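Provenance and format

Records in this collection were gathered into a single text stream. Each protein contributes a sequence line and a token line. The two records reproduced below are adjacent in the stream.
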Amino acid sequence: MEYAGAWLLFAVMTAIVASSKGRSGFAWLLLGVLFSVFALILVALLPSRKPIPRDPGAPGPETHVLCPDCKEPVRNEARVCKHCGAKLVPLSEQPLEPMLPTGTDTRRWRR
């Protein structure tokens, strides 16, 4: 009887560890019932599936662009790259539509 209690205890511990790592607690409970200690060891060694929270001050596409010369992230509104000193055009001063070379036909072909 003690063995059955320990077996179920390991199964429940497996489910608790699995759900704390962002995995399916019920599925790991079933695996814990089948494989007991081995399932607990396996789920303890697996990496977490929970997303890592992003630092709000970290560079992202909303706040930074890549310098065309050194490919380092710089703020959208920077006029000079702080890494290589290249001159930049701030995002607010760039034209909304891409500039086309002169003589480019922008009409669509019709059938």
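Adjacent record:
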Amino acid sequence: MGAQRHRQVVLHPAGRGRLNLGHFAENDPFEPSADVDALQAALRGAGRPAQFHRYPGTGHWFAEPDRTQAYDGAAATLAWQRTLAFLRRPPNG
């Protein structure tokens, strides 16, 4: 019998309708693709639009330069660019 993961998402009502941003590695044993899909569906189902990005060929810690075995500079740079663009947008834009 495999381990089951349980996750609960609690959302503040003031954030309803605001876009949520997520960055995920393609191959991450801590955040399997099915869990990411479920999180995105839960957010959308709660009226929280979600923009999730997945980075092909990456694993957990892909954006951490001190994790040299996992770091992917190109993916990390793209994630930061996307994050900065996201933060520059108006709250409901």
